[in-house]
Structure formats: structure tokens, C-alpha cells
From TrEMBL:
It comes from Nymphaea colorata (pocket water lily). This is Uncharacterized protein. InterPro entries: Translin_fam (IPR002848), Translin_N (IPR016068), Translin_sf (IPR036081). It holds the Pfam family Translin. GO terms for molecular function: sequence-specific DNA binding. Coiled coil: none annotated. SUPFAM superfamilies: Translin.
Length: 26
């Protein structure tokens, strides 16, 4: 469960960072 939670958090952080980058680019 811990590993899965870490993966979920990491994926969320990646998606948030990607969104921020996209907004900055545009």
C-alpha cells in the first residue's frame, strides 16, 4: 500500500508540475 501511495503522489506531482509548465509556456 505504501508503494502504491508513493506512486500515486509522485504521479500527481508530475501531473501538477506538467500543468504548471504548460501554463508557463502558454
Amino acid at each position: 500500500n505504501e508503494k502504491r501511495e508513493r506512486v500515486v503522489k509522485a504521479s500527481r506531482d508530475v501531473t501538477i508540475n506538467s500543468k504548471k509548465v504548460i501554463f508557463q509556456v502558454h
